[in-house]
Amino acid sequence: MPGMVAFGRRWGIASDDLVFPGSFELLLRVLWWIGTLILFTYHKGHFDCNGGGVLHNYLVGLLVVLGLIILSLWAIVYVSAQGTITNPGSRRSIPALVYLRALLYIPEFVWACLGAVWVSDDSRGCAPATVGAVITAVITSWVILLFTGLGVVFVFDPMGSPRIQPGPTEPLGVRDMESSGGTQFLSTARSLATKVWECRLRLLCCCLPQDESHRAAFSSISQLLSNFFSDTDLVPSDIAAGLALLHQEQDKMERSRDPEDIVTHSPSSPIDQDLQTELEKAAHCMQFAAAAYGWPLYVYSNPFTAPCKLSGDWAGVGCRTRAAEYDIVGGDNLGCHFSSILQTTGLQYRDFIYVSFHNQVTVLFISRAFTPDQSRLSSERTRCAPQIYEIPFFVALDHKREAVLVAVRGTLSLKDVLTDLSAECENLPVEGVSGACYAHKGMCQAAGYIYKKLVNDGILNQAFSVAPEYKLVVTGHSLGAGTAALLAILLRTSFPTLQCYSFSPPGGLLSKALAEYSKDFVVSVVLGKDLVPRLSIPNMEDLKRRILKIVANCNKPKVSLDSERCSRTFLCPESSLAVSEAAVCVLQYRILLQGCWYELFGGDPDDFPTEMDSRREEQLSQPLLGEESLLIRHSSSYQSLASDDSPAHTAAHLPLFPPGRILYITEDGPSRRSCFSQVRYRADWSSEAAFRSILISPRMLVDHMPDAVLRALNSLCSDGPFSLCPSTLSNNPHISM
After folding, report:
1. Which CATH code for domain 235-255+283-308+346-366+387-569+683-720?
2. Domain limits of the chain?
3. How far, in Å, CA of 467 to CA of 403, rounded?
4. Is 443 helix (H, G, I), strand (E, B) or coil?
5. Could you count the other beta carbons within 10 Å of the beta carbon of residue 178?
6. Which of 256-260, 494-498, 549-553 has the weakest average pLDDT?
7. Is the pLDDT of residue 33 over 50?
8. How far apart are CA 395 and CA 406, in angstroms?
9. For residue 44, pLDDT beyond 80
């Protein structure tokens, strides 16, 4: 529901979000009140010590204050649990109760000060247990006051000022999208939102240089974020509830579909041979894409053996050994990045042409002689710290595949995050490609940076002077995957035989024309329900509309005290439903807690209501009052429930697509399995149409991890034969290299 309005402004919390914090504080206050009452009763109100009269008054006053606080908290919890997400009518009294609770902080503060004064001045001669109890009460008061202040800061909405309010709400269906009042209001709201998001980004990235390039990035990213969030009136708990409901709805739809006919082919068929060859190439290249992350991913993937290997106690290749052997300065003082790359790829140090470890000033540059056994290493320090969009990469000679391999690192720093978020479109004209040519701005800039290093600095010339018969292969994961695909497009005219393997690339990367062009030389690998290949601005807008729709349709509260069932159980105890009714009488946790349970342990999605029980189908074709109330008037992203859910219907943003042919890997078997069960995968060719919607799942982030992708590829290459989907294979015109 919309954020709660109190003290003359909107807050980042809804009136139905006070159940959990209120219940926790209520439990704490009740225990505190009981303990104080026991202490007072034990001494029978008489304390034979200095300041005994003050202590008596303190305990009596504390009992009264705690009693009032307990009553106010019980009222807040009870009222907050009423109604549904978009029907806050039964919670109208929440602001008044919040005002009452806020007033009670004044006597609590006074009594906390009084207790502190008594402990410091008048507690001499009193029993140590009594003094300890008072000290505990005083400390508890101050801790609660501190956390209350932090909570106020946390839910404070900088854009909740009452000075900017929309005009009177028009009747449903009447939308003067061009009216000057609505346009001015929306423009003012978005301008304020942009400033707020820019301040947040500056605060989060305070350790980065505040130069012109970073300021421009902050500005463009804040504009993007403000445009996405400024036209809705949802609080974080609403979004969490919507995601939980949407996940269950998606699972329900998936289970209702007829199972696909999956045919297992032997590896001897031509189609299997082609796919198996691509899988083997992808598994090999994924090792280099994972190696580009350096020692953090290596230690994460090998927590028990990595420290020994990197310390030089294993196989004679260690951080300190290489650090002493090579003149490496700056970002890789111990040589751990380079040692982890050697361990992951299995290459020798002489096979590397150029290595950039991270977004700092140091890179390792290897000048090779023309004989294989002669090489020299030197460290090159750039004249200035790299700017945003300058992401790390390395160039190596892959003798196994006879390739000069360029591996681009994925997201591993704040600068990489800024590159990811620079999701505006940038023109990328390519000779011979008809149609609109544009791409993700941040990754386009990163690809341009690497292109200049490879071509202008002569890195590729040096590599091909050593191995002129080798072909060029570009690879990367996540951010590195998108950058590698764009880099391959830039290098394609100079290297016609170039190949690119893009692992878990972002879905919002290329225009349609460039995506079709890249299918001749780019293979994208996507695992399961990975979020990133489905991540694009149109898809995010589609997800926002789906959340609004399902939240507006839901007739269940996030958390509820079912007073109707409680009273029915009390009045009719002989009913056969008495036991089941009583089970939900105390605290009926609906969306959030059941959603958390479903995410962790699974269950039957049919048990979770997601639509109004008595709403007729024809009524669903009309805009909902609940859905309308969650959107700011004159929002261009508003759609009624009758509109198509496809993000293609959103004209506010240019559509972007993942690169190349898409090799889609999924788990073969039930979606829920034990942690120790053997996982089998199946692979098939897919199209960008399968990634036009974001799937909500606990594995949406796990499936994006590079070690998970590498494990799935290695499993497919070692298990064969593997399962294929013939329907997608027969329709793919780019099946052969």
Report:
1. 3.40.50
2. 5-155, 235-255+283-308+346-366+387-569+683-720
3. 8
4. helix
5. 8
6. 256-260
7. yes
8. 5
9. no
Q: Which residues contact 439 (CB under 8 A, 6 or more apart)?
A: 425, 426, 428, 486, 509, 510, 511, 514, 656
Write the single-letter amino acid at 210. Q
Mean of the per-residue pLDDT values for the chain? 75
**What long-range pairs does 640-645 form, CB within 8 A, spacing at least 24?**
641/549, 641/553, 645/542, 645/545, 645/546
Q: Which residues are catalytic, by number? A: 478, 530
pLDDT digits (tens, 9 = 90+) for 566-609: 444 334 444 444 333 333 333 335 666 666 766 666 666 655 54
| H-type alpha helices, 167-211 | 180-204
Distance from the Cα of residue 411 to its chain's centroid: 13
Q: Encode pLDDT of 175-231 as tens digits.
A: 343 345 555 555 666 677 777 777 877 777 777 777 777 778 778 887 777 777 766
Distance separating alpha carbons of residues 396 and 459, to the nearest angstrom: 10
Strand, coil or helix: what is 385? coil
Alpha-carbon Rg for the chain, nearest whole angstrom, is: 31
First to last CA, the chain: 52
The beta-carbon contacts of 178-185 under 8 Å, at least 24 apart in sequence, are: 179/634, 182/633, 182/634, 183/634, 185/633, 185/634
Residue 137 near residue 114, CB atoms below 8 Å: no
Residue 254 predicted with pLDDT over 80: no
Question: pTM to 2 decimals?
Answer: 0.75
Decide: 525 and 501 in contact? Cβ < 8 Å.
yes
Please report the sign of the dihedral spanned by the C-alpha atoms of residue 706, residue 213, residue 157, residue 610: negative
DSSP annotation of 333 reads: T
- The answer to whether the beta carbons of residues 403 and 464 sit under 8 Å apart is no
Count of residues for the chain? 737
